[in-house]
Amino acid sequence: MSEPSMIRNVLFQLHWFLGITAGLVLAVMGVTGASLSFEPEILAALNRDRPVAAGTRLSGPVLAERFAVQKPGATITRLTVPADSSEPTLVGYTLPGSKERHVERIDPATGRLTGTLKGSAVFEVMEDLHRWLALPDDGDGIGRQITGFSAIALIYFALSGLYLRWPKRPLDWRNWVVLDLRKTGRNLYRALHAVIGGWVLVFYLLSGLTGLWWSYDWYRDGVKAMLVAQVAESKPDKGAKADLSLAWSGFERATEGRRYDRIVASVRDNQVQFRAKLPGARHDRVTDELTIDGTSGAVLSATPYAMRTVGEDIVTSVYELHRGAYFGVAGRIAILLASLSMPLFTITGFLLYFARRRRKAALAAVVGDTPDRPVAEATTLVAYASQTGSAERLARLTAEALPAAAALPIAALDDAALARVKRLFVIASTYGEGEPPDNARGFARALDRAAPDLSHLEYAVMALGDREYAEFCAFGHRVDRWLHDSGATRLFDAVEADGEDADAQRHWQRQLAGLGARTDQPDWAPAAMGEWRLVDRRLLNPGSSGGEAWHIALEPIGATVDWMPGDIVEVVPQQDARRVDAFLNAAGIADTPEMRALLMTRILPDAADADVATLKPIGHREYSIASIAASGRVELIVRRCPAADGYDGLGSGWLCHGAPLGGTIAARVRANPAFHPPRDAATPLVLIGNGTGLAGLLAHVRHRAVQGGGPVSLYWGERQAAQDDFHAVERQALADRGVVTRSITTWSRDPGGHRYVQDAVAADAPAIAEAVAARATIYVCGSVQGMAPAVHAALATILGETAIEAMLDEGRYRRDIY
Length: 818
Known about the structure:
19% strand
């Protein structure tokens, strides 16, 4: 793993670890912080002073005297005197022998105590939750440590989140602020987490950095030392008691009777600190601050707001910064919304975490079942570029299916490994907007350098991505182009998977089977099957020297099923009854109807002593559909193939011999968009295939016969004209009607003429080049072994490799090979 990738991985792991530990605390702090954002206004609205005629509001000293009469022995700690009745007049005090502080309203006209503030108890609970989670020992307990740690985590989330989501095009503002709500599932969670995180990042940094002020003394002292010049302060005399009236008179002399919106006098032993809010101030710390000696009325210190330095203003206004009031009403609203969004990050973070855990669990299950094969001993490599484990899971299943194959991360795929092996399979995820996974970034940079000579190598790519992103499967396609440009031979076209695309996974599994991979594995991505009836079955090539080819027709039971030309039917086969008999005899198991029914649907091991309960279900088999949906039936061309043990192959044996005519078969139709017809029916078609690949081509011809459209050229090859001319009567009728405008058939076992379909393609080069010049789309259907690469080579000779690649990119060269 490269150093930048390692850094990203470490940052990400720490990001989610802190998320699942501090996330819930931050959610609580966010909601309670939002509730406190407008506490003064809410309390003022609930506790307005009664209207008082101008000039009849009592002064601070008089209010203190009236209080002393009502609460003899109580000590005033704070007196808040607003200039008008828009907010309550308050007095804070302690009782003899107690340090507990009480706050009551005091009538500004009479000085009569009128009780506690309405709603204050609710806000006290909110503040306790916000500052120390309302845990025991208040600010001196563990709660303060937890919230302090969470504030540090919030700062880390903001900075690491910015690094981790840094877009490919950082100068494009849309990458930072546009939230695409069309996304769904995990993509939506990630978008909400990342984009809204970008919106509130500055506010979270502000909240975290200011929140630490009340969590750690060392932090507060350090900020003060950095921002404010150290000035010796007079310490209050703890043995003396301030005279509030005397101190208030000293304040009025020092301020020369200036008008203030609010005066707050805080008593500390023999000193009284006055904060006088300037008229029209944008927040509560826009104040002139004076400290008055409560025994003499002398001014100990005076700092008018206009004389504050920037550092002093910040230190004095930390609370206003924390709640956004430092920036006016707009700042408070911004902090309010940012605080309310805190639970969103907790929720989306947990959803992403659980999704990642599910993928890790799926990978772990595969790793447990598929032991690693040493890379040095492998002749086939399966490289994976995986962000969440999905690509690695598929790579390990692929390596298990292929003979002499080993899986390895793509970062370990160096020039020596590429030079040593003959086949390479790559399963590559694309992360976000076209980016490689973190552990593949080093390999991605290598793709920009001069490519080695890989002309000895055969390869195939499975590209994982998400269609909700503009650059779908971009990294997988980039690897595919790099391998092709290096001279490697593509075994079959890149398979694209949209998220957890079960269809694509099964299609990849089918392509591997055509290359000799194991066919006794269960489906990698099981899917629900429907019931179909086997309504027709007839031999198409009696007396052929090749394998039997059968026409098979299935009709859905109790449902209407739609499909397009090029789509696939997936059939769940059953065992050859003779193989089940042999297994029962060898294992000494009683042949009961229940046991036979079970074994008919399970993969049977070579060893007869296997535990029946652990046998895995048979995976599906795929076949190209020859019919169109309007016919109401799925028609197939299936070649019966023997298995290595001498019995029938699972899929072909079941369809051609095992399943009873009129019986029920489990199957489903799978969309195969990569082999669908062109959107414009006027597009000429060039159809090329061999053997049972005629099925996939015949569907296009039948569709064109019904819908009308451009000319169709059909190139098809089989063994012998006398025995293997599948659907000859229908094909001739389509030619007579002008649907098929050019039909060339080759026979590999008849004397004379062209032997294989690729020979016919090469010989008809001018006609194919003319069709392509007229914007024709080429479809190739048939075997990946022999036919497909030979046809590709012939087309490359006719059109040029560059033109073929361009047609692939444009969707004008489509292949369904197996």
